[in-house]
Design brief:
Elements (H helix, E strand, L loop, with lengths): L2 H6 L4 H11 L2 H23 L8 H18 L8 H19 L5 H21 L5 H8 L3 H10 L1 H4 L6 E3 L6 E3 L12 H19 L3 H12 L4 H8 L3 H28 L1
Antiparallel strand pairs: 1-2
Length: about 270
């Protein structure tokens, strides 16, 4: 146990956060980094599962550290959200931001992912309901087996999708996907209304998903299960869960991108 742990472990953490927010004590910051650094390895370990072999675990950890530091700087103890939940979202987002910046996904796969997302959005707008795999495959001009193979290939790109940040005004009004499902506190009325609108849209979008896809989203993003663990819960293969996750994210991205466009024009 370190000297900082000995000094701060017995102090109520809410008090520590408020003191850090007001004084920016480097000693308290060091304690918080030390206390929550295991979260980085935990999240990196989860992300590493299913990643290509060229993605090194230690690189994921180093990317995640930036997310933890960012979380410590921006966390507001007055909000109805636990720091652990907030930090895990930031860490995961930071890892994928860095992966995106080094372009770890082949361009051809990115193009296929974008094409698939557009087709799903177009078909669901046209039909006004969830479209089945057969319709998606027909529109793509591929067989069902080819569609299944494609979903597995692009599954890695979809893991970043629900960690996007919504910008509501300036950089201090960032809202992550997870945060939109938590009631915000101490914000001006316009921002509260806007966040609540986004929260409502996300909740409604998730409700429209097919039942299995909905379960995958909840278990992956809110229960922090790996795709393999979700497969065990739903009694299907990990590759099948990967396909379900990818389709769910494509559907949600199509719906949420429209909302983001509306928000951006305000």
């Amino acid at each position: 146990m370190s000297r900082l742990s000995d000094k701060y472990n017995l102090i109520d953490e809410t008090i520590l956060w408020k003191e850090y927010r007001s004084k920016k004590s480097q000693e308290i910051r060091s304690y918080l980094v030390e206390k929550y650094s295991p979260l980085v390895k935990h999240v990196a370990g989860r992300v590493a599962i299913g990643m290509p072999q060229n993605v090194e675990f230690e690189d994921l950890v180093s990317y995640g550290v930036f997310g933890l530091l960012d979380a410590i700087e921006k966390f507001d103890p007055d909000r109805e959200i636990k720091f652990k939940t907030y930090a895990m979202t930031r860490i995961r987002g930071s890892i994928f931001d860095e992966l995106r910046s080094v372009d770890w996904v082949p361009r051809s796969i990115r193009q296929k992912a974008k094409q698939l997302e557009q087709i799903i959005g177009m078909l669901e707008n046209k039909e006004g309901d969830v479209v089945e795999d057969e319709a998606i495959a027909k529109e793509l001009g591929v067989s069902m087996d080819e569609l299944s193979s494609l979903l597995i290939k692009i599954s890695g790109t979809s893991l970043v999708s629900l960690n996007d940040i919504w910008f509501l005004g300036d950089e201090n009004d960032e809202v992550s996907f997870m945060e939109t499902l938590v009631s915000p506190q101490n914000l001006n009325p316009d921002v509260i209304i806007e966040r609540e609108e986004i929260k409502s849209v996300i909740v409604e979008a998730i409700k429209t998903l097919p039942e299995k896809e909905k379960k995958v989203i909840v278990l992956y993003y809110y229960e922090d299960l790996t795709l393999k663990e979700i497969g065990e819960v739903l009694e299907v293969t990990e590759s099948r869960i990967s396909q379900l996750h990818t389709k769910a994210v494509m559907r949600l991205r199509s719906k949420l991108s429209k909302v983001k466009s509306v928000v951006a024009r305000r």
